Amino acid sequence: MTATVDTAPEIAEVKRSFRPTWVDLFLWAIRIGAIIIIAAGLIGSISKFIAGEGPSARQWGDLIVAGLSQGAMYGLLALGYSMVYGVLGFINFAHGEVFMSGAMVGFISANWLFSNGMWNANPFLALFIVLVVAMFTSTLVAVLVERIAYRRLRGSPRLIPLITSIGVSFFLQYTFAGLFGVGVRSYPQAPSVFSGAVSLFGFPVRKTSLLVISVAVLSMIGLWYFVTRTKTGRAMRAVAEDKEIAGLMGIDVDKTIVTVFAVGGAMAGVAGLMWALLFRGVSFFTGFIPGIKAFTAAVLGGIGNLVGAMGGGVLLGLFEGVGPLLILDGLGIPGVSQLKDVVAFAALVLVLVFRPSGLFGEQLGSEERA
Amino acid sequence: MTTVTTPLATTATTGLNLRRILKLGLLGGLGMVFITAIGMLAAFNRRLLITPILSLGYLVLFSLPFLIGHLMARRVEKEGVATAPRTSADVVAAAVAGGLAGFVAGLFAILVNAAPGLRGTLPNLSPALVEVLTLGMGVGIGLVLLTVLGAAVAALGAGFHWLPPRIARAVSVAAQSVVAVAVFEAVIDDLFDWFKTIPNFLYASRGGLTILSAIVVFLVAGGLAYFLPGRIPSLRSALMVEDESKRRRNSLIAAVVVTLIVLVIPQFLGGVLNELLTNVGLFLLMGLGLNIVVGHAGLLDLGYVAFFAVGAYTTAVLTSPLSPFFAPEMSWWQAFPLVLIAAAIAGILVGTPVIRMRGDYLAIVTLGFGEIVRLLLLSDWLSPYFGGSQGIRRIPGIGVGGSEIGGTSINLFVYFTLALVAVAAYISWRLEDSRVGRAWAALREDEDVAEAVGVDTVKAKLQAFVTGAILASFAGALFSAKVGSVFTNSFEILVSIVILVVVIVGGMGNIAGVAVGALVLIGVLGGPNQPGLLQEFGEFKLLIYGALLVYMMLQRPEGLLPSARRAQELHQEEFLQDAWLDKGGQLAETAPKGA
Predict the structure, then answer these.
(1) Which has the minimum average pLDDT: A55-64, A176-185, B564-573?
(2) How many interchain CB pairs under 8 A, A with B?
(3) What's the CATH number for B237-257+269-574?
(4) How far apart are CA A187 and CA A110, in angstroms?
(5) What domains does chain A contain, in order, with CATH numbers?
(6) pTM value?
(7) Which among A92, A99, B87, B267 has most CB atoms closer than 10 A?
(8) Interchain CB distance below 8 Å, A159 and B363
């Protein structure tokens, strides 16, 4: 009797000791490699900067502002991924297309407003109309997709809704390609009130960037209020925690899930207008890459964590805006602007491999997510 | 969560249920508007099926009212609920719903006609569209005509339920045969090159069946289906019998038959169709590889195209004299083993970081890898090594018996492709029931349990990635030898998705399923950059692939030809239910099969 008692802790001790497998070694090698590359790039860039070569301080400022405003857009998109994952536990791959649909249909209204002169005569109202159109379209598409495709898949293995959403994504892309043609459509030049730059802390900042960032902040505050202070928001959090119990407590689960998609869609619509303000050109393929990046942002911020999603978006935007020049140029790699997406995808891979629970922690329900 | 339906609810689907009529009619109308507005109708209208009365466009357009009629008159037999008898009210309801759908389409034509400004943003909303939609009669008559036609077609769809089952089946087989013969015009024309009488009789000079030949095909196929009952569906069930040894035997027979056909058919085909068959072979190779990764091991790899790219680019670098940095100018055969090694290394490099990752994150990470590979190959940074956007050209063909075969000698190349497909199929088949195959199955079902019973999950996952990568590199090596050049736009994410659709539509985990999927999808619709038989589908291919993916996930997640194991898993609940009903005694005698 006593002998067994004595040996038991030893066994436990042996099991607890760390024995790295070669997979661990491989992952550590990647980590160290990534750190070395980033450090070498940073040193290279800084020494260049000190030597007076490369981009000037003002150019760096531009890049940072551009990164921030893009990051705000990614953040709003990431909210949609984060909320759906938090509540239903799957990656809504089609969310990027929800965003694209808002931007595309918004284009019709912008074009119409431009042709009847209101775009420049009454810029705030015009932008508001485009915003409403984009939000409405995105919300409608998101809710329809939920109703037609996802609702029947509740409770199925996680990969099935993911594959479905990939199908939805391609269906929506090529629907819009059919409707609008495959070419890139350009929004009219931003109303004159918003063109040009203002000086902020000595740096000239594009007015559109400021507008985008302030719209993002406003939307975020509105969403935060909605989720934490209203009854529907509380129902959403309850459903994310546990669908069955929430149902027993008298919450209409179906309705709440529709609300989740609607709110995510509305945010995607706002992001659609931001895209239009920042880049002007929209096409049926506009949603795909930003969608994947926004998903990265959602994971980076901790999936299910709404404030984290916004923060993750801003971080990713900054990293993507500044990273190529800061790290890759410092390594002496030519044509870094082409590698913007590579940097974003590398961030995606690194985040998912090494920090799948995000920087700010996941806030998922008690259901098992592993 | 949902309200409990009372078990003996009266069937609300009978007679003139106004709500249902409105719902189906409006949905059908919106569907018709959708098909028109995305330009499908106009594009498909160029393809005549029966000259001069039926084009592919109208077939697709009016399939919607037909479906509405079919749905309106369908009786879902529920246990314990008396199914309402068929009445003429069904047909009326169907006709009203179909008419409503047609009316909505007609209104859309009027709208387009009245607002020419729409064309600026939505280029398909053109006068040509109005003309096609209203059958060239002007919007007023068109509205009436569409309503009447919609009602008539829907009534037809409803009336279908009245036919005795045997006749109904014969008619449906006959109708499908007419469409098939019309769609496969190019194949039949090519196959009977030595006996022109048949194609000359079947097809009009402008393409499409003639009215007479359509009637003949309809009667012949319908007659065959009527007098030889149950032959065609039994082929599919023969491949899916429960008994393992019988299934095995049937599969083997099917494989031998297919091999024989495949050896003979390319002899009779022309260059275009052999090119098509080669493309099917390439996608089949990749499908078989992805089938191992997704179907067997359950790892959803969305960046699978990266391995295809590795295969193609390694071949290009090793064989082409124009490889910018390192050009050993090997022959294809010398390069091939090195290509396989490169692919295996790529498999390990992609597989290792994702080994501990949960399934959906793995999908996104592999997608990221796929894009990184493509973007790096395209970038200025690596263009001194891989040619960037210029690609690598002048890749030699495959040396066989003193001559080089490549894209220019496609009639020989197709055999080479099919030989590699056979090798790949053999590898997958042998792996399926091997120790590795069982480890994969265990891994797919439950990783924790698999680990607990002693499966080395790390090893099994890497084996799946490496095997998949090697099969994709087969396709890559063939692809570069066939095309003679590689460019990054052949390796877009779309390729991964299309391969995924092939595997899922065919039936995950089943070699025959993947083969059917590749043949039907790539053969008829075409790959992302390769045209299929229905070239009119070109721009709508990916729309259809997306819709198919959704449809399969919702309705038949096991695919057209599922593997025995998977079909059992997915329908286990149904089996249990049946067993329970059998014990209850009430339904012990279900309808005898094959009566």
Answers:
(1) B564-573
(2) 167
(3) 1.10.3470
(4) 7
(5) 55-354 (1.10.3470)
(6) 0.89
(7) A99
(8) yes
